[in-house]
Each structure stands twice: as structure tokens, then as C-alpha cells.
# Entry
Amino acid sequence: MLPHIEALYGGAAGGGKSDALLMGALQFVEVPDYAALLLRRTYADLALPEALMDRAAGWLTGTAAKWSEKDKTWRFPSGATLTFGYLESENDKYRYQSAAFQYIGFDELTQFTETQYLYLFSRLRRRRGVDVPLRMRAASNPGGAGHEWVRRRFIDEGETHDRPFVRAALEDNPHLDIAEYDRSLAKLDPVTRAQLRRGDWSVKPAGNLFKREWFEIVQAVPYDVRRARYWDLAATEPKPGKDPDWTAGVRMAEKAGVFYVEDVRRTRATPMGVEALIKQTAELDGRDVAVYMEREPGSSGVNTIDHYAREVLKGFAFRGILSTGSKQLRASPLSSAAEAGNVKLLRGAWVGEFLDELVAFPAGAHDDQVDAASGAHEQLATPTARGYAGKPIGW
# Structure
């Protein structure tokens, strides 16, 4: 057993990573009141055949352990528990704010945000005198929205920060038909194949437009900036087994060719819920902040913009923008400005997820924040764009 408080087992697919997490979680179930938590990004991921809950049921059914379907928890005769959970949204991490665990395992860590992962350390604790190690364990393949932060934390910095990385390989799993799996992996694109077959953390999708190190985190924004908020309407309500797009609104400021991302708001809600968020955000930003919204082509897009102008954002400086060209093409000016050091981020809770999405673009699961940031940058980079010159934010 590794003595370190955190560690990552990762690399190639099929190496038995989920089994390793589950074995680690069960290691101290004979200790009274020991508590372990295993996490996936969504409940659907937990419930898939051969996923964590299914494997645990196969191992524990018929033993003295008892399953609670309501709590998604196995309870052992000692009083120990093994709970399964998920962190689909950023705020889901707060569901565990009153809980205490001695083992927390993240399956497919690159699907989580860095802020979710770090917050769960606050739940890793034990009573004085309890002889159980505190362990944060994770398993993951390369790739996914969180690839960059996971690689940085465990591959680049791991050795010097006491965060061991244990490499997984197909050959580690004696129960897998490797030859047959190799034939399946051969049908993938070269980047994904290298990530899943060789566990290659260095290979990246072609066309990656953003790098994390381009963005300076600042504590405040200068005086006399022009401001705008740009919305990308793409939200639907989340459903089991689905990972829909988000509505995202990015507020950006500009002065002397330097752009400051000040705030990001996101939601997956009904149209009425989206309207409520956009109206409330506009009121919080103030009527001097120009509001822009991507307009879909066709009459439905025109009608949506008209509805927002007449009903939702009446009295605000508002305009619908018809987007042209591919998402990558529209993001290129923002990418160039960032590479030149001219895009800075105002410190806030949203920064982690924002950067995760940018560095994964265009291969990531979502691009709503990228679209909204690109739109805000386009409007503020245009000399004739409306924007408010006012007080600094973040002092």
C-alpha cells in the first residue's frame, strides 16, 4: 500500500483501474465506522454494466454486507460504509460538505474539474486514535476535459510533490483478451489510440488552440475598461445518461488591447430558467455593460433575439450576433491574443472549469465557454463595439 495521501493509477485502458479503486476502498471495512467514497462524474457512469456499482455488487452480494439502494451505500457488520456518488455539476461537491471519509476514489479523473477534486480533500478526515490511513486515490486514462490539470498534477509535478503516478498497461489485466481489444482500439484515431493503448499523456489532439500557461490570473481589473457580456444559448436540462451542452455567459473587459475575463455564468435549465439567469446576471452586471447573444440562423434565431430584446433584457444595451465560420475559426483571434499574453483571468471559482474547457478545445466534451469567450472578445476587439468604461472589479 502506498503511504502517500494521494496517488493516480492511470494510462492504458483495460488495465484494471476500476478494480484497483474498489479494492482500495474495501481494504479497511473491518474497522468500525470506516467510510469510503467512490465517485464518477455522472450517475449514469456509476450505473453502467461492469462499472463501479455493478462490480461492487458482484463482489459483495451474498456476503454480510448490506446494500442500501436509497443511499447507494454498502454497510458492513463493523459499521463501515462504502458509498457511491457523482459530481455532475460544480456545485455537486457541496453535497458532501458535512461528510467525513478516510478513502475517496475518483474513477476517470480527467472527467472531473480540478476544483471538484481539490474540494474533496476537505472531506478526508478521521477521528483521533483511529488507525486508518487517509487516502485520496484516482484512476484515469489520458484525454478528456481535465487532461491538462491531471497531467500537470501527477505526471509533471507528481514526483516532486509526493503525488505518485502508477502506470497502467493492458498487460496488467490477465483476464482481458488483449488481442481482441487491440483490434477494437485499432479502429480509433491515432491520438485516442495512443492515449488508450499506450497510456500516452503527452500526445494531444491536432488543432488545440489554447495552453493553460498563456493565462495570467490577476486580482483586479484596471480602471476605465470597456465591458461586455456574451451569451451562448445551448442549454438543455440534464437527464440520466446524457451530457447536454450548457448556456454560458462570459463577461470580459478590455483596455489598451488587453482583455480580462471577469466572470463566467453557466446553467443547464429550462428556457424559463435560462431567461431568469440571463436577466438576473444583466441586473448584477449593471445597465452600462453591453449584452450580446449568439443568434442562430433562420427565423427561430430572429424570434429568440426579438423576445430577449422586448421581454427579458428590455432597457439593457443588447444585441444579437449572427455567427459565421466554424467554432475553431471564431476562437482563433482569442487564441492569438492569449498566446501574446493579452488575455488575463480575474481570480474566481469559475477559473478552473473555464481553463479545462479551453485547453481541451476542440476535442473536449463541451465548447460553450469557448464560444462565449470568443464572442465577447470579438465584440470588444471591434473599435465600434459598445462597452462601459467604469470602476475596477476585484479590488
Remarks:
- The chain has twelve helices and 15 strands.
- Residues 257 and 383 are 10 Å apart (CA to CA).
- The two ends are 47 Å apart (CA to CA).
- Residues 271-285 form the longest helix (15 residues).
